[in-house]
Design brief:
Elements lengths: L22 H23 L8 H4 L8 H26 L7 H56 L6
Helix pairs in contact: 1-3
GO cellular component, one term: mediator complex
Organism: Gallus gallus
Family: Belongs to the Mediator complex subunit 21 family.
């Protein structure tokens, strides 16, 4: 957009991604907004410069003005966003990641999955065996308690 026709309060704030999958697009959009805003600020606040006398327009002894503050702000924002984009680029799969390597990786993961499934089946089987033993022992205990109780009731009480 044209930054010269709108006030500084109308600058786009940096956008936040709604989801992780939108991170790359959001960062690129943020960088585009920052460039657009920086150009708009330069158009709105930048002092006119004569190309024939460019050296006197760039005077380091000039007092700090809003344009310099904006330049520093946008330089920092653009540098930070560019660094974020570099990190994203570095996290992308490399060109060496061919279909064959991906297939080998998937095959290895599938083998690990089958091994884990076999171990899980063994653990479940042993758990079932232990559960049967525990249930059998509980049934024996219950049967013993019933016999003990019924035997105590059938015995005659001693005379006192």
């Amino acid at each position: 957009g044209n930054g010269a026709s709108r006030p500084l309060s109308a600058l786009h704030p940096p956008r936040q991604a709604a989801g992780a999958e939108l991170g790359e697009v959001s960062r690129l959009s943020c960088l585009a907004d920052q460039f657009c805003n920086a150009i708009g600020v330069l158009q709105q606040c930048g002092p006119p410069a004569s190309f024939s006398n460019i050296q006197t327009a760039i005077n380091k002894d000039q007092p700090a003005n809003p344009t310099e503050e904006y330049a520093q702000l946008f330089a920092a924002l653009i540098a930070r966003t560019a660094k974020d984009i570099d990190v994203l680029i570095d996290s992308l799969p490399s060109e060496e990641s061919t279909a064959a390597l991906q297939a080998a990786s998937l095959y290895r993961l599938e083998e690990e999955n089958h091994e884990a499934a076999a171990r899980l089946e063994e653990v479940v089987y042993r758990g079932d065996m232990l559960l049967e033993k525990i249930q059998s022992a509980l049934a024996d205990i219950a049967q013993s308690q019933l016999k003990t109780r019924s035997g105590a009731h059938s015995q005659p009480l001693p005379d006192s």
